[in-house]
Amino acid sequence: MTETGGDMRMLVEQIAQALVDAPEQVQVTPVEDGDATILELRVAATDLGKVIGRQGRTAKSIRTLLGAASMKYKKRYMLEIIEDEDQEETGPAE
User: Fold this and answer.
1) Do the strands 27-33 and 36-42 form a parallel or antiparallel pair, or are they unpaired?
2) Taking the CB of the first residue and of the last residue of the chain, which one, N or C, has fewer CB atoms within 10 A?
């Protein structure tokens, strides 16, 4: 991973950790995709709503900050908030 990719990963990680109740479960994974880098953000299932926000406003704000910060490096970064299927299965089994 390049130094700039690490900087962007750390930026998203720090923001997410400040928003959630379980900061130790925040994971940001960079995935190279041609001329862009996708940053996959994973948080605890109970914190997913906190990272997305009402009508996606928090997620949109994080993406805006990521876009503004990445202008410095002249590279495109995109944020994907990943909802793990195995985290959803917390309800009672039928």
Assistant:
1) antiparallel
2) C
Give this prediction's pTM. 0.80
Percentage of residues in the chain having pLDDT higher than 90: 68
pLDDT at 2: 56
Q: For residues 83 and 48, is the Cβ–Cβ distance under 8 A?
A: yes
- CA 51, CA 20: separation in Å to the nearest integer? 7
Which CATH code fits 3-83? 3.30.300.20
Which distant-in-sequence residues (6+ apart) come within 8 Å of 88 by Cβ? Answer: 45
State the Cα–Cα distance between residues 8 and 5, nearest whole angstrom: 5
